[in-house]
Amino acid sequence: MTERLRIALQKSGRLYEQSLSLLERSGLHISKSRNRLYWRVENLPIDILLVRDDDIPHFVSEGICDIGIVGENVFLEASYSGLKGADLTTTLPLGFSHCKLQIAVPKNIAYEGPQSLAGMRIATSYPRLLEVFLEEVGVDAQAFEMDGSVEVAPRLKIAEAICDIVATGATLEANGLVPVDTVLTSQAVLIRAQADAGADKEAIITRLVKRFRGVIASEDNKYIMMNAPATAVDQIAALLPGAGAPTVIPLFGQEGMVAIHAVCHESVFWETLEALQEVGAGAILVLPIEKMML
Ligand code: PRP
Ligand code: ZN
To answer: Do residue 91 and residue 103 come from a single domain?
Structure first.
């Protein structure tokens, strides 16, 4: 019998929805039992453990799970704190849950670079990452660890500044804080133990990573087609964002006209379509790509 692979997933919060959607778009049929602790995948030897994001690096390094999806911020903080068990490695950036770990201060404070933080108490859930930053910029300040609600610390006079995750910036703004420095730019990543997981599990991990790459690529890629005079092909090829060699096919019964098909590896904006039309393209279609195997 093949050993079942265990994936650690955030049970709720910033990463949950998109992590789950990535797994489902990668072809995993997940039987979502009501207990929200442990889900079984019906069509592959995989089980999913739903846990707190801060626990994910530990679950993976201690071998309770084989791989995990977690924010790079949580992964790096855990790594700097010294994980027990096998050392971890990131296998793949997943392209969602983009955020920044930033230093923020109350609006009325004059900030003139990291030196302004000297002597301050900085509230954060990421003390290790903050300490590394402070050391790099050579500033003597104190990281004050809080598990949550970091943004209220300055108002409660617990700290003069904070170092916290910023996505839209709404939380900072609601609390009268402004971001002044970036400690880390982060996104969701796939993590695993460095040690070999055994032939069965390694084979599933390889398959999953390949599918994840395909899903991520298909999101960024669009299929574009249009008709145009053959004389405009060079100009059109130059306008297509991140496309390789386009396919050019003669149009039946229309002398000098061709159909151009290409996969664009970047977003196709309205401005691009307008520019294509200006050089003679017509009947322009932009289609989403469902799957890619690269
Ligand atoms: C972060 C951070 C803020 C919020 C910022 O928490 O602590 O509360 O997100 O987002 P915004 O810039 O869009 O307002 P997170 O969701 O990571 O939760 P956690 O700290 O409980 O893991
Ligand atoms: Zn968390």
So the answer is: no
Closest protein CA for atom 20 of ligand 1: 148
Question: For residues 153 and 61, is the Cβ–Cβ distance under 8 A?
Answer: no
One domain, residues 147 and 205: no
Angle between helices 199-220 and 16-25 (to 10 degrees): 100
Domain that holds residue 211: 5-95+188-218
**Which residue's alpha carbon is at the smallest distance from atom 5 of ligand 1?**
166
Q: Are residues 252 and 126 in the same domain?
A: no
Nearest CA to ligand 1 atom 2: 165
Cβ–ligand 1 distance for 13 under 6 Å, the answer yes
Block means of pLDDT (10 residues each) for the chain, 294 residues, are: 91 94 96 90 97 96 96 96 87 95 96 96 98 97 96 97 97 97 97 93 96 91 95 95 88 96 88 96 94 82
69 sits in which H/E element: strand 67-71
Give the number of domains in the chain. 3
